[in-house]
Design brief:
Largest sheet: 2 strands, antiparallel
Order of helices and strands: HHHHHHHHEHHHHHHE
Oligomer: single chain
Low-confidence stretches: none
Strand content: under 5%
Structural class: mainly alpha
Number of strands: 2
Helix content: over 70%
Bound molecules: protoporphyrin IX containing FE, fe (ii) ion
Strand order of the largest sheet: 1-2
Distance between the termini: 37 Å
Shape: globular
Length: 454
């Protein structure tokens, strides 16, 4: 940690960790309801637990993005943050809003618009928080006068993410219109501007961890972002197949969204090439695991499993089934959870006292158990989805009869999710077991990498 104000990131990461743990409690609860019996049916039904599960996901990932930005921007711009006080107030307001919104969901106080269930007062606070955040970062960069391309991509992603939240503030009476604009936020976030955020963190981490040449890395980062936009923007149409809009969206959606994985292949190759080619290595090998892991798991969860159901001829069978949940979990985890965990793992030895730079055995267990667990969860959702499509949509069995026949997959889901949750528990334990440090520490030396045998 070269700048004292970077330590504000610790508090963001700490909140993110707590909410990540809570997200899993509601995930396991939602999964248990598929198996039944459900003693909480009238107190905490499935729609409420799922809503809390997904909203907590979005809140903790965004908290992680903000913390990671507060860590990275001083480092890139070589300056202290503009205002630590503002950053802390922002965190207090954000966390209070998040918890109050979740509490409101217990009483079904929300819009009912999937993933954008936040009621209007919460949405207004979200906008205020985003403005505080962007102002603080903007002033930090302006004051330092040093602005890197990596930072530019990150800032572009964060700014556009805030702009794309604006359609979600409006209320549409007509359901088709409401669904149409919902994707401007959700799809353009996860398959557009959030990928800029991921790309910014990825480039930063690869430059720091592998000593890769900044100029080369930043040039390729632009290419990847360009590819994301070419396919991702019009690719929104893969959500317009069955929602009551004209049929021409079918071929448009199929074609452009099928191009989306190209950028994700680019990202994985980018990460792999950076570590292969560079001659030096940072001691924090655990952070490198998370960084490269994020690029590779994104290619699997978003690229491959997204492609698997993106053509209209496939999606007409799989739409809104467990196949969607399969892809949603693997994609979100690989792209956004893992990149946040990578930034945390990179920053943590500086943010806390007494921690080894290389990472601890607990840290490696956390990595592999999460990876294995999430892979197993993906398979469980996937196999459940294939059986569901066949029984319900091809053979015409009723929804509940089908659910009874695919219960074994939910047993598998709970078993693999338990492995995953233990991995997350270990990560959280590893996070909190060393005390926070507020003093500046030396940068670890990059050491020459052993040359791999051909
Ligand atoms: C990191 C990137 C991605 C994330 C986080 C992500 C996440 C998600 C989530 C959460 C959903 C469910 C949304 C809802 O129903 O409200 C979804 C749906 C979908 N995604 Fe992705 N996705 C990503 C990338 C992709 C890519 C690259 C493709 C295509 C190649 C794709 C294809 C689809 C399709 C077709 C659906 C609709 C499923 C249905 O009809 O039920 N996704 N995605
Ligand atoms: C203990 C681990 C977890 C369990 C047991 C779990 C379980 C579930 C269940 C049962 C659902 C409802 C699926 C449905 O619509 O019927 C769900 C939804 C969802 N979960 Fe998880 N989850 C876990 C962890 C995670 C993680 C780590 C992420 C992301 C990083 C995540 C992202 C999502 C998303 C995006 C949805 C909505 C998918 C959709 O609407 O299609 N979950 N989860
Ligand atoms: Fe999409």
């Amino acid at each position: 940690m070269r700048y004292k104000s970077q330590s504000v990131a610790y508090w963001y990461f700490a909140v993110a960790m707590a909410l990540f743990g809570l997200q899993l409690v509601f995930g396991l609860l939602s999964a248990a309801k598929y198996l039944g019996p459900d003693p909480l049916l009238y107190i905490l039904p499935f729609d409420v637990t799922k809503m809390i599960h997904t909203n907590l996901l979005i809140v903790w990932v965004l908290t992680g993005f903000m913390g990671a930005t507060y860590w990275m921007v001083p480092d890139e711009s070589r300056t202290e943050l503009y205002s630590v006080k503002l950053a802390l107030w922002q965190l207090v307001l954000w966390t209070a809003m998040g918890l109050a919104t979740i509490f409101g969901y217990f009483f079904r106080y929300g819009t009912g618009n999937k993933l954008l269930e936040q009621p209007l007062p919460s949405k207004i606070i979200i906008v205020v928080v985003m403005l505080m955040f962007l102002y603080n970062i903007f002033m930090t960069i302006k004051r330092s006068g040093r602005f890197t391309s990596t930072e530019g991509v990150l800032m572009g992603g964060l700014g556009l993410a805030a702009v794309l939240y604006l359609p979600a503030l409006l209320h549409y009476e007509n359901y088709v219109v409401s669904i149409f604009y919902r994707w401007w936020t959700i799809h353009l976030w996860v398959e557009g501007v959030w990928e800029m955020i991921q790309g910014g963190f990825l480039a930063y981490l690869l430059i720091r961890l592998s000593g890769a040449d900044r100029e080369v890395m930043e040039k390729w980062l632009y290419v990847i972002v360009g590819l994301v936009f070419i396919a991702g923007i019009i690719g929104t149409a893969h959500h317009y197949y069955w929602v009551g809009v004209p049929h021409y969206w079918l071929p448009i959606g199929g074609f452009f969204s099928a191009l989306e994985p190209v950028a994700l292949v680019g990202m994985a190759v980018y990460a792999y090439a950076a570590i292969r080619r560079s001659g030096v290595q940072h001691p924090n090998v655990l952070a490198l695991h998370w960084t490269v892991g994020s690029a590779v798991f994104t290619l699997f969860g978003a690229g491959l499993l997204g492609l698997a159901h993106t053509f209209p001829s496939v999606n007409k069978w799989t739409h809104g089934t467990m196949i969607t949940a399969m892809h949603g979990h693997a994609a979100f985890y690989g792209a956004y959870a893992m990149i946040v965990l990578a930034m945390i793992t990179y920053a943590l030895p500086s943010l806390t006292s007494g921690r080894r730079e290389q990472g601890s055995p607990v840290g490696y267990w956390a990595f592999w158990m999460q990876l294995g667990g999430m892979f197993g969860m993906t398979l469980s959702f996937g196999t459940a989805g294939i059986a569901q499509v066949y029984l319900e949509r091809i053979l015409g069995l009723g929804y509940l009869d089908t659910q009874l026949k695919i219960q074994v997959h939910f047993v598998m889901l709970i078993a693999t999710a338990t492995v995953f949750a233990i991995g997350v528990g270990l990560f959280i334990y590893d996070f909190f077991r060393y005390p926070v440090r507020t003093t500046i520490s030396d940068e670890p030396e990059l050491k020459p990498r052993p040359i791999p045998h051909a």
